[in-house]
Amino acid sequence: MTDRPNYITPAGYAALRAEYDRLFATERPALVETISWAAGNGDRSENGDYIYGRKRLREIDRRLGWLSRRMKAAKVVDPAAQADRTRVWFGCTVTIADEDDQQRVLTLVGDDEADAGKGRVGWYSPIARALRGAGIGDLRRVTLPAGEKEYEIIGITYSID
């Protein structure tokens, strides 16, 4: 992992915590019980329940470790508590327009909760880095895989759904 902070919204942290709790309290114990039952059936070399169960248990343990590290490193930032609401900062929803007047609405969230299809971009993504600190009417140039594009900031709000 890098030294940069793992910013996350309260809703994003709650989602990580819910997944951790579900895996640890529900799925893992049920799987351990299945593996124990399968191990008692004799030959383990051709026992599908045992082999698959052990593989799935390793996957769950790996995911639990990852979730634990991400939650430990998380810095929860509530967008509603943002002091300067006139600029683009973490947790804001920003409306931008390109040179062709094509508008996009983006919400700047933590990298763990980013979903480009829903307009939620990670705080360390190129477009989020370019928009940081901008105010309404500012122009920002972003280098994207398709080339450089210039965006104008049209609107800024600080309400996360």
Automatic annotation (TrEMBL):
<feature type="domain" description="Transcription elongation factor GreA/GreB N-terminal">
    <location>
        <begin position="6"/>
        <end position="76"/>
    </location>
</feature>
<comment type="similarity">
    <text>Belongs to the GreA/GreB family. GreB subfamily.</text>
</comment>
<dbReference type="InterPro" id="IPR022691">
    <property type="entry name" value="Tscrpt_elong_fac_GreA/B_N"/>
</dbReference>
<keyword id="KW-0804">Transcription</keyword>
<comment type="function">
    <text>Necessary for efficient RNA polymerase transcription elongation past template-encoded arresting sites. The arresting sites in DNA have the property of trapping a certain fraction of elongating RNA polymerases that pass through, resulting in locked ternary complexes. Cleavage of the nascent transcript by cleavage factors such as GreA or GreB allows the resumption of elongation from the new 3'terminus. GreB releases sequences of up to 9 nucleotides in length.</text>
</comment>
<keyword id="KW-0805">Transcription regulation</keyword>
<dbReference type="InterPro" id="IPR036805">
    <property type="entry name" value="Tscrpt_elong_fac_GreA/B_N_sf"/>
</dbReference>
<dbReference type="GO" id="GO:0070063">
    <property type="term" value="F:RNA polymerase binding"/>
</dbReference>
<dbReference type="InterPro" id="IPR028624">
    <property type="entry name" value="Tscrpt_elong_fac_GreA/B"/>
</dbReference>
<dbReference type="GO" id="GO:0003677">
    <property type="term" value="F:DNA binding"/>
</dbReference>
<dbReference type="Pfam" id="PF01272">
    <property type="entry name" value="GreA_GreB"/>
</dbReference>
<dbReference type="InterPro" id="IPR001437">
    <property type="entry name" value="Tscrpt_elong_fac_GreA/B_C"/>
</dbReference>
<protein>
    <recommendedName>
        <fullName>Transcription elongation factor GreB</fullName>
    </recommendedName>
</protein>
<dbReference type="GO" id="GO:0003746">
    <property type="term" value="F:translation elongation factor activity"/>
</dbReference>
<keyword id="KW-0238">DNA-binding</keyword>
<dbReference type="GO" id="GO:0006354">
    <property type="term" value="P:DNA-templated transcription elongation"/>
</dbReference>
<keyword id="KW-0648">Protein biosynthesis</keyword>
<dbReference type="InterPro" id="IPR036953">
    <property type="entry name" value="GreA/GreB_C_sf"/>
</dbReference>
<keyword id="KW-0251">Elongation factor</keyword>
<dbReference type="InterPro" id="IPR006358">
    <property type="entry name" value="Tscrpt_elong_fac_GreB"/>
</dbReference>
<feature type="domain" description="Transcription elongation factor GreA/GreB C-terminal">
    <location>
        <begin position="86"/>
        <end position="158"/>
    </location>
</feature>
<dbReference type="GO" id="GO:0032784">
    <property type="term" value="P:regulation of DNA-templated transcription elongation"/>
</dbReference>
<dbReference type="InterPro" id="IPR023459">
    <property type="entry name" value="Tscrpt_elong_fac_GreA/B_fam"/>
</dbReference>
<dbReference type="Pfam" id="PF03449">
    <property type="entry name" value="GreA_GreB_N"/>
</dbReference>
